Amino acid sequence: MNYSEQLLDSLEKQDFSQQKILLKKALDNDSPEVLASLAENLTGLGFTNLSKEIYRALIAKFPDEDLFKVYLAEILLNDGADDDALTLLYGIDVASPAYLDSLLVQADYYQTNGLLETAKNKLLKALKVAPDEDAVKFGLAELDYLSGEFAQALPLYQDLLKRQSNFGEVNLNQRLFQTLAKLGRYEEASQVIKKHSGEIIDIDSKYQAGLVMLAVNEPDKAISYLNDVLDQSADYVNAYPLLVTAYEQKNDSKQALRFAQAGLAYNEIDPILYEKGARAAFKLNDLKTAENLLTKGLKLLADNSDLRLQLSRLYLYEKQDVANLNLFNQLDDEELEPQAHWNMALSYERLDNRQKAKSEFLLAYPDFQTNPDFLRAMIHFFTEEKNSGEIVKELLERYLRLEPDDQEMQDLYNEL
After folding, report:
1. How many CA atoms lie within 13 A of 313 on its CB side?
2. SS3 166
3. Which pLDDT tens digit goes with each residue over 105-153?
């Protein structure tokens, strides 16, 4: 047993008393090949301080063997000694056999530190040195993916998949369908998912698969993947809105409401869950639950106009006109949407406050003058107003251009 083996044996037995002595004897007596293997093993075991001593000794003995510099630089980067590591890496000549390895380590360093453009430049240099090297292609694909350059990443992943389905810990088929999805090519992405469903294991990939299957209107498959996500992690909050949408596609309002409420238990400021949950409750004729959801949502998200308008529509349906008007009475005029004016007009009309109803109809009119439902409501209102014949006539002309087959409105126009 050589000294390197003795050192490894003692460390594996957690006997650290002889490590300095055995390391010195190994450096003095063992061959360079054995020492290089020792350094690699020590790095794998986490004894990087010992590895650094070996690499420094090897560099001193073999100054032209640049690969030792690359290995030492990797350890130094992990230790936070960036300047020393980069000095070693930048000192490796273009003609050196280790130049490619140096570029790959540099690219990884710059990517880790968020300097994606610099990292890409390093990989492009590496590609010129080794145009067929898969490690370089994979690095470029990952950088393009992280940078949102999905059209550039796609052919690289497709090329890598000709030779392997995994690169390190990354499943390339997962990357392929995710890249296709990012490009909006959902049908192609769904085909990859179906073909390689057994490879979709990690939680984020299952979520992405659910998103894709939802996009191609396959709610059952989406539900399957998203339920798997929640089985792995019930607090994966992004899965709940997608599950609710999937059940909406299936017209299953009961399950849509269930998952909206479950999702709100983990994220009570998700406006989509309030909106979709209330819509599902309304379809189930559970108006109290719909109102409670929207009221709570609006309390937590006071500036959310979509929730306010949805609650307003519910109040109109329930003929709670005072409650409807109260939704808007604290808002400035510039904060009111055209739909709010329409909704208020209907409530004021029912409360027989005709002056305010008239004002709200006129405020909403510019935005809804091509909306038949609005025009019909406004026509009915103004037919009961004094001296409004010309207004009603103009409204009817607009309405009949949109709905020429409405005989009731045609008869009213003829009367005028």
Report:
1. 12
2. strand
3. 999 999 889 898 999 999 999 999 999 899 999 999 999 998 899 999 9
